[in-house]
Amino acid sequence: MTILPQKGYTPTYLPKVQRYPRENGLYAKTKIEAFIRYCRSAENVFKGQKAIGKVRKIVHFEPFCGPGWNRTKDGVHTFEGTPLRAVKELHHYDVFIFNDYDKSIMDCLYSELVDLHLDQNPDVEVHLFVQDANQAVKDLDLVLPKRIDKAFPFMGSVIVDPEDLWFSWSSTNQLATKRLDLLEMVPTHIDLARNIKNPSAQNYVGNWLGEAPVSDSLDTVLAQYETKLKTIYKWVHGVSTNPLPEQEYIWVPGKYHLISASNCPNDVAKKIWTGEVRRTVKATRGVPLFEGLDA
Ligand SMILES: C[S@@+](CC[C@H](N)C(=O)[O-])C[C@H]1O[C@@H](n2cnc3c(N)ncnc32)[C@H](O)[C@@H]1O
To answer: Would residue 147 count as lying in a domain?
Structure first.
């Protein structure tokens, strides 16, 4: 694994005592499991495409990556965040791209990555950006694999896990032009719920939604967002048909929504959510894929 800081980011290695986890509710653990399980299932499809020479590299992108670790307020539970889980568990991926707008948070993640000592495969690239998430989407082409032969240069996954609604619709639209499956967390219980009835926040909500909200009802606006995603992605599962397996989703009603979308013509998302890939994983591991989580 080769760590490649981008666009002037100069990493600082922090000793363990100076790194801090993100303070979070236990629901975040459920969310992280759902994200990573999706990527692990999708990886089975991606690596198949790579094996038959249709695609050259498998890519994972997180525009809101966090420091690598999470801890509950009471300090009882500490768990790894999506970027660390991704580099440790997605063994067939070739390129990881992480971004956070806070340098000290990125330094925490950088230090964790260094400590993993995953240098046995230097061909795996980990690109680190420190800037606004929307700018990171604009800069993706700087680091995405380029076409050099008949194969598609890349396919893969994007996890959008924001704190608020700063991920603009134009960024979502830009991702739709790439061969990347999108998993997006909509923080319904915080920003959307708080702002949907606030007339002075309509521009803010509209920036995320890409148009004015049609109503001040949370469910209606979520349905509006899902409908818009369907105009740019072929497969979208969100809100009512949620990518979270039912037993996980119902633990956090009203807390957040995960939406998966895909524009991959080989129907990666469809294969996963119709159970084709899920069944394979279940069979090979011999344990239920969606076993109980302790949230
Ligand atoms: C919910 S956390 C990500 C957690 C991570 N997925 C995990 O599993 O640990 C969101 C991160 O986005 C960063 N962030 C917030 N607004 C941002 C923005 N506009 N651009 C880039 N990063 C941002 C925050 O610093 C925070 O670390």
So the answer is: yes
Q: What is the pTM of this model?
A: 0.89
pLDDT over 90 (residue 27): no
Q: Which of 9-13, 117-121, 272-276 has the lowest mean pLDDT?
A: 272-276
Tell me, yes or no, whether 133 lies in a domain.
yes
Task: Please check whether residue 295 lies inside any domain of the structure.
Answer: no
pLDDT in tens, 69-110: 999 989 999 999 999 999 999 999 999 999 999 999 999 999
CA of 67 from ligand 1 middle (Å) equals 8
Which burial class, exposed, middle or buried, applies to 240 when counting CB atoms under 10 A from its CB (0-12, 13-18, 19+)? exposed
Any atom of ligand 1 within 6 Å of the Cβ of 22: yes
Please identify which residue in the block is written with the tokens 């690598």: 68
Check if the beta carbon of residue 166 is closer than 8 Å to that of residue 133. Answer: yes
Q: How far is the CA of 229 from the centre of ligand 1 (A)?
A: 22
Q: How many domains does the chain have?
A: 1
- The boundaries of the domain holding residue 104 are 2-282
Q: Is the CB of residue 282 below 6 angstroms from any atom belonging to ligand 1?
A: no
- Nearest alpha carbon, ligand 1 atom 19: 132
